[in-house]
Write a structure and sequence with these properties.
The longest helix is centred in the middle third of the chain and has 12 residues. The chain starts with a strand and ends in a 23-residue tail after the last strand. Helix 2 runs parallel beside helix 3. By secondary structure, it is of the alpha/beta class. The chain contains three helices and five strands; from the N terminus they run E-H-E-H-E-H-E-E.
Length: 123
C-alpha cells in the first residue's frame, strides 16, 4: 500500500479552519482503487498511526466504503464519502459512523417508465 503525507494540504486545511492554532491537521493520501481489500488495509493503517485518526474521507465508491466502515466504526471514526451511493449505507444500524456528500442511488433520478403508446416517427 502506497501512502503519502500531503504537507501542503495539511497547511491549507489548517489555515482554512476555525480550529485553535495548536490544532494539528495531517492529511494522508491512500488509494483504495475502489476495491475492498486496499480500503480495509488503508483504514487499518490509519488507525495504527501515532496521532489518532479523527475522521476519514473516502473511499470514492460503495464497496470499498462499506468494508472500510466496518473497521472504522469499531473505533468510532466517522467516514465521509464523496462517491459512495449504495442505498444500504443509509442504514445507521449497520453503518453508524458513515456520512456522504452525494445522494443515495435511491434518491437520484428515476427513469421515466415506458410509454404505452408507440413513438410517432415523422419522415
Amino acid at each position: 500500500m502506497h501512502t503519502s503525507r500531503c504537507a501542503h494540504c495539511s497547511r491549507v486545511l489548517s489555515a482554512a479552519t476555525l480550529a485553535p492554532p495548536q490544532t494539528r491537521v495531517e492529511i494522508y493520501i491512500n488509494d483504495s482503487k475502489c476495491a475492498p481489500k486496499p480500503a480495509v488495509e488503508s483504514a487499518l493503517w490509519q488507525l495504527t498511526q501515532p496521532v489518532p485518526t479523527q475522521a476519514v474521507l473516502g473511499a470514492g465508491c460503495s464497496g470499498a466504503s462499506m468494508q472500510s466502515q466496518l473497521v472504522l466504526q469499531v473505533f468510532e471514526v466517522p467516514q465521509v464519502c464523496y462517491g459512495a451511493t449504495n442505498p444500504a449505507l443509509a442504514n445507521k444500524e449497520l453503518y453508524p459512523y458513515f456520512l456522504r456528500t452525494i445522494p443515495s442511488d435511491s434518491l437520484q433520478v428515476r427513469p421515466v417508465p415506458p410509454s404505452p403508446f408507440r413513438p410517432m416517427i415523422i419522415r
